[in-house]
Amino acid sequence: MIRKCLFPVAGYGTRFLPATKAMPKEILPVVNKPLVQYGVEEASAAGISEFGFVTGRGKRAIEDHFDISFELEHQIAGSGKESLLTSIRDLIHNNTFAFTRQNEMKGLGHAILTGRNLMSDNPFAVILADDLCVVDEGEDSVLAQMVKLYNQFRCSIVAIMEVPEDQTHKYGVIAGESMKDGLYRVTDMVEKPAPKDAPSNLAIIGRYILTPDIFELLENTEPGKNGEIQITDALLAQAKAGCVLAYQFRGRRFDCGSIDGFVEATNYIYENVYKNNQ
Predict the structure, then answer these.
(1) What's the pTM?
(2) CB atoms within 10 A of CB 113
(3) Domain residue limits, the chain
(4) Average pLDDT rounded to a whole number, residues 77-104
(5) Domain 4-277 has CATH 3.50.50.60
(6) Which residues make beta-bridge pairs with 52?
(7) Half-sphere exposure (CA, 13 Å, Cβ side) for 24?
(8) What is the pLDDT of residues 32-44, one digit of tens each?
């Protein structure tokens, strides 16, 4: 069973400067909740209850968000505003949260390796909070869809989506053998290829389920593109030695690591979620 989820949240968020000079980008609000809370809620809906965060300097606000704020809660106790804390209180009371620091920014693969002590020898999920995923009411969350697949196949799984061919340089891109609609056995995986070098237009987004042998593979992975340790390199080694699946998920993904995607997500959540719950 997948009970643990890792959040690599040590990045600087430079595309949102000056807003992120003193505030983590993962705490930026999409309407009335920070980005990272949407990710935790998605994982919780998939049956996950143990959360690990790989943080960095200036990221204390993430840890504080998933903790009790005695002064604030005392001030609004008994008022109409107290109900606004229900969602975060439920997460705090029903889950556990642990934190470790990534001292150097050396790529997603390095960030995941840094979280090894939090995940132990268990299969685990990884969520990149920049990618906000939403599904239709009544549908399984994206991570819940992937957990069901893991329970069937017991191997690492990456979430993928089709992207325009001129956008492949922004993503890890897979090639694979189709097993059924939307599910592929990975045969190749390239980090941020130029359009002419991309093996397909199927791009990896920020949802993974990883088996614990990925840590040893990451330890033996040489720095790749931009001198960083790439998770795609370790996953490709895992695919060649065994099996990695790529899953074309049901739902919609917003790239909240970009200004345009963040604004698009905010408008969507306001119109389709927030207003409907008022």
Answers:
(1) 0.93
(2) 22
(3) 4-277
(4) 89
(5) no
(6) 6, 98
(7) 25
(8) 999 999 999 999 9
